[in-house]
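Section 3.1: Structural characterization of target chains.
Under the original work plan, the team committed to producing a structural model for every single-chain target entering the pipeline before any wet-lab resources were allocated. The record below documents one such target. The sequence was received from the expression subgroup and is listed exactly as submitted; it comprises 623 residues.
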Amino acid sequence: MDKKNTIIGALLIAAAIGLMFWDARNRTELPPPASQPVVTQKTQDRVPADQAAKVAEQPAPKAPQAPEKIFSLENATLKLNISSHNGAVKTVELKTQPTSLEDSAPVVFNEGSSVPALRLASPSGIRGVTPIPFDVDFVVESQTEDSAAQTRTLTLLGKTDGLEIRRIYTLSLNAEGEGLQDPYLVNHDIKIKRVSGEAKAFPLLVSTGMLPPTEGDRANIFLNASWYNGDDYEKCSPNEFKDSSGFLGLGAHLAAPDLEMPIHHSDPLSFIAVTNQYFASVVGFAESTSAIASRVFVYPQALPKTEQINDITLTTQAYAQLDVPALNVGQTANIRLHYFIGPKEYTRLAELNDTIDGIDNVVQFTNLFGFISVDWLCKILVVVMNALHNLLPASTWAWGWAILLMTLIVKGITWPLTMAQQRSAKKMQQFSEPMKQIREKYKDNPQKMQQEMMKLYRDNKINPLAGCFPVLIQIPIFFGMYCAFQTCAELRLQSFLWISDLSMPDLIPGMEDVTIPLIGAQIHLLPILMGATMLANMAMTPMPNAQPGQKNMFYIMMAIIPVICYSMPSALTLYWTMQNILTIFQTWLVRRSRDKDSGTNGKVDIIPPTKKKGRGKGLPFAR
């Protein structure tokens, strides 16, 4: 390999890996917006003058007169706290999802938000002003439990402007299992009946609620609103609502007051959602719904201080507009919603695709370098990991063992290729002296040197590309795991050995507060072990065709990679470290058999083939 090409290749690899983990973004935070309306001076300057005047005069929505009551509906997994004001979901307790390793209290969705999930509202008609909620008080009409269907149902009734609105929430009481409704899924029916007044169509908006950022999502990749129309999955980040200078000027934009996306009737809206790194709130629309989805609205929402992480002060909320047809007295519009609130576990969401088309998109596997999708590989790896986990006996370390088993499977697939690479490197080492002679003889003629090298390889059946095959398999798998493990809810708060959380960098017990001098970073043991095993593996691998400068470049690269990967999820560094250990063992096996295979001390004498001077000449029987 030419020295110049080696250096260029190494620099390109370093740049590629650096780009993958680059998360620095130029952001200009807006001041926390008011709860209503969400308009700042910057956004108001870009609103037409007549609308700006309306914004200033916009009264706060009239609150229902009766004091708020909270109605609860729960199973073993969820507890929905539903407000009598609007009949919407004020908060949801995810009973099986602890807040953190230190706090066993359940995660509470929508906590601190002024906008409940499944809120019914009307468009404000003004840019930057959130929809106006229906002024309706709801009361409990019935609360039943069906032992045969294993469901629990809460029915609320509200009346306004000649309309009678029933909101029916249904939860499954079954434990998780094949053929049973997912415990994180809520079936919600909205029945709107006209009891008096003039028949007229009207827009009905339904909200998602909001999710806060997570500590592991430092680049703010997964905190967004999204929607799916059966073909295209689109997202809107909170960054859309902040002024940005972009990266070197690219992608610079002014803060948008809101975002409105029309939905074509030929592409019916499947769902709207808000997500963060590990959780999703998804409002799915059944095909039998009377109303037609015509628009998606996304608005910024200020985070309460208790929910702000990594200096992120803004999140998003989404609304879908359903156009309710004109109803004569006695007619009813039936709207069926499927509401999912829970962890973004790919296998769980894939099973819900029949209920909410495309819901598995909310997992949001990251793209390499921001634009190369490896979703298909991420899905395969996550499915395999889940299958291995299900085969293991239940334990607190089960997910860690599943990762190690998957490492063994990958190593088993690449074992023959790695053996071929090791044998080829060993054989090339035996021909190191002839290679050196060729390089010295033709050092001023690179083209001739390359020809003589290829002739040497051909005559002695050496494949110099054999070492590339294991890498060609390992690199995509590593990138796939990197993209998958960043948002793998299954690994959240799962422990293994000294690792307290496989979805985060590992911390040594008792040394959580110890930092590296000058740098100030916490001590993560796995990246250090990963780097040490990489260097050990390289030291054991023959590199007969590499110049001293090239070898030094490789060692520098091996030292840089653990630094770049220092803040990776520990699940990924665990996989890579185990792969290195298995490769070291494989290299040792090959080196152990070196003398037996060659019958020499590692060197060979090259006997050039006899030149033919004519037909039959040069053959032992040709006399």
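The mean pLDDT is 79.
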